[in-house]
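Study this:
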Amino acid sequence: MDIEGTITPIAFVRQVLFPYAKSRLASFLRANREDYTVKKSVASCLATAAQENGRHADEQTLPTILSKWIDEDRKHPGLKVLQGLIWDEGYRTGAFAPQLYEDVLPALLQWQEQGICLALYSSGSEHAQRLLMTHTTDGDLTRLFVEFFDTRVGPKTDPASYAKIAGKLGLPPAAILFLSDSETELDAAAAAALKTLQIVRPGTTVSARHPARTSFAGLDPTAALDGSPYTPQTK
């Protein structure tokens, strides 16, 4: 399942996490310039910036570049790693705690009891996903998930990414149900032969190409995998 807009409100990411990362970019990069992971991510971001702008980018201008990328919700792997590292501090100090939609946790617990394998797939880094699920207002929920997939498997709009996920889970694509609020992500998953279901939250653009529900409550994933139709639910 997707995270942002599916199990957590988009507002938490856009109005809390993104501003927190932007406000600390410059100081974080200065303080951690010798860290191997930071150096690798910085080099990746600088290479992309130089390629796109047609001129050399340096570490002094990088915070400005990355701030712009954050505003654009850029899915650059290097940026996602850096954001996750910065958010680590915020989670550890209690600066914020993510809240899941109220229908999510009861469903996750029920599905786990049914023996259903649960996994996350987000454009945020695996580290960022684990941080978020560790520090929810419902407690540490990382135990509920067997895998945390990020863009290292590929973009969320590329069918090949979902084929890789199926391979890593050791399951045929048709045995996997993907839950997301995003029509383009669902399109890609369906193109890879995964079953799909759109979760329609406030502000979601409803898809005409995928079955939809407004809540995890009452959702039986095995029904979708058995081919039983869902009645689209929209507000």
User: Anything to note?
Assistant: The CA atoms of residues 43 and 78 lie 8 Å apart. Confidence is low (pLDDT under 50) at residues 228-235. The beta strands are 119-121, 147-149, 177-180, 195-199, 212-213.
